[in-house]
Amino acid sequence: MLVNVLGRRAFLRRLGSSISLPSLCLLEPSKLSARVRDSIPLRMGFAYIPNGVIMKNWKPNELGKKFELPSTLKPLKNRKQDIQILSGLDHTKANANGDGGGDHARSNATFLTRCQARKTAGSNIKVGKSVDQIAASHISEQTKLPSLELSTDRSRRSGECDSGYSCAYQFNLSWKTESMPMLPESNPRLVFERLFEKSQLKDNFKATAKRLRHDKSIFDFVLEDANQLMGRMGKDDRDKIDEYLGAVRELEKRIEQDETNKKNILEYQLPEGVPNPYKEHLRLIYDMMALAFQADTARVINIFTCP
Fold first, then answer.
1. How far is CA 307 from the centre of its chain?
2. What pLDDT is stored for residue 71 in this prediction?
């Protein structure tokens, strides 16, 4: 048996990769208290839909615990007891308040900052620190990434986008300071390699190309050692690792399949485009959000979804 003092970092070194894994019973020192053992890190996720939704399909008609899920939320029926649906949280700072047109840019900028954006298309942008970055500042040392910003649209930090408002307001939800947006990533390949690529290779295009030429996935780098270690695990841990690595492999295959017809593997460069149709792009982005939470790579994530 592996000794109970085996730590998470030691386990990752044993795998020979920086890929993060879900928490395992095997990795817990001795017998922790049930309260500690069963605790789950709190995560914070935001998804923003800038062009609005049909509210009657999102909002239940009943108050309290006994309510029927509206049509859009039906897929959550098995988790109904775990969710709360809140309304009446309008941001008054997203209103014009004397600033005239520009609802799209103003609303985006206010969503996580609750501040009125200074109306400007120049470099003197100002809105406020966003709630996700406030949270990240408190837990940044607990995960590989302090926060993760995702989008289905390419980010912009300058120029005019909406009635005198800078594009920085319209395409960035997260703000590290009142004048510094956290630019989101929309390319699934880059997001995936940021989450799971070996730390020394994630920014090395030549090494990435070599890996692809030999048809080696990130998963293959750790599979052999993982299989050896799984032989020493209990059934629950084996099932958990199997499920998790399977999800990682499936996601990587989907990304590579989308790129197969776009790039010559022998002259591989990280792709600039995103999957088509939009539905597949959106699904990939949300899948990576889920994997980041499951691997505990990041606990604060926001997604800007703009078709």
1. 18
2. 93
Calculate the alpha carbon distances from 166 to 116, 159, 169, 196, 233 in Å: 13, 6, 6, 33, 54
Q: Is-contact 244 21, C-beta < 8 A? A: yes
User: 281 is written with which tokens?
Assistant: 């792009």
Residue 300 has pLDDT above 80, yes or no: yes
Q: Sketch the domain layout of the chain as residue ranges.
A: 8-40+188-273, 44-181
Element (H, E) at 244: helix 235-260
What is the tens place of the pLDDT at every residue in 83-110?
Answer: 888 888 888 999 999 999 999 999 999 9
Note the pLDDT tens digit of each residue in 118-136. Answer: 999 998 999 999 999 999 9
What lies within 8 Å, CB to CB, of 212 at 6+ separation is 256, 265, 268
* Cβ neighbours, 10 Å, residue 168: 27
Q: Would you say 112 and 245 are in contact if contact means Cβ atoms under 8 Å apart?
A: no
d(Cα 104, Cα 223) in Å, to the nearest integer? 46
* 204 alpha carbon, distance to own chain's centre: 22
pLDDT for the residue 210: 57
The pair of structure tokens assigned to 149 is 């910003």
Q: Which two tokens stand for residue 255?
A: 């990304």
What is the value of pTM for the model shown?
Answer: 0.68
